[in-house]
Amino acid sequence: MRSILVAVCILVCCATGTAQAAGARIALVIGNSNYTAITSLKNPARDAQMIRRTLRDKLGFEVIYAENASKAKLERAVARYGARLASAGPDVVAVFYYAGHAVQSGGENFLLPVDVTVRREAELVLRSVRAEDVLRQMQGAQVTAKIVILDACRDNPLGARFRMESSTGLGDIALGNSEFIIGYAATAGLSAEDGTGRNSPYAIALVNHLATPNKEISEILRLVRSDVAASTQGRQLPEARTTLLRALYLNGGPTPEVRVAAQGAAQTSPKTPPGKRTY
Asked: Which fold has domain 7-253?
């Protein structure tokens, strides 16, 4: 059973309505495998290591990393991430990747540290870390590009041993008015597979496509979904949600053909007369 997290957003305005990175690139990567009181997981720590290498070595990110994190260690990593984002100046590109167990309760999503022990659902707020609190760290700084990737199950990882009122795992995160892109490893109510090798199907697909040159992020996540569906024979279907206002590129930018098409669309789009308001 798997649990995680992606949200990306990059901002540099241009006439074609695309976005590219201009400032610092900072990521928080967490992989939790060695759970003590609930089912341990084989691959999240190795998946996180692989994602860290891709972000750092291929895409130039500064990576804050935590592996098999207790609640205290997880909180320290999130606090360090928030402080680093706040000190990085404008035009920051922020990525958060989480692999491990996660669960939804009371409309909130909780990332489960490896030392989590809960007897009642109400204890989750005391013994885990809210996923939404990580997003708040990204919103509170001068971050213009926000990527969240949750490599987590979206069923209940605590299983029959622990009755959940909602009986669901990781839920959709409310994005509000901020520009985010969030990738989920699995469709709501389904498990994210660990895979038969050293890494999960979702992490493998991410690494295969994340640094592809001149590829927009939404297209990258579509390719990831296709790869995972094929490698699991349709048992696992990743999802993505976005509130981006522009095309987003992590490596390079739009090809000349895409740029020409975007310029043509902009020139033929209807103009709003002066004094008129659109909604």
From this structure: Rossmann fold (3.40.50)
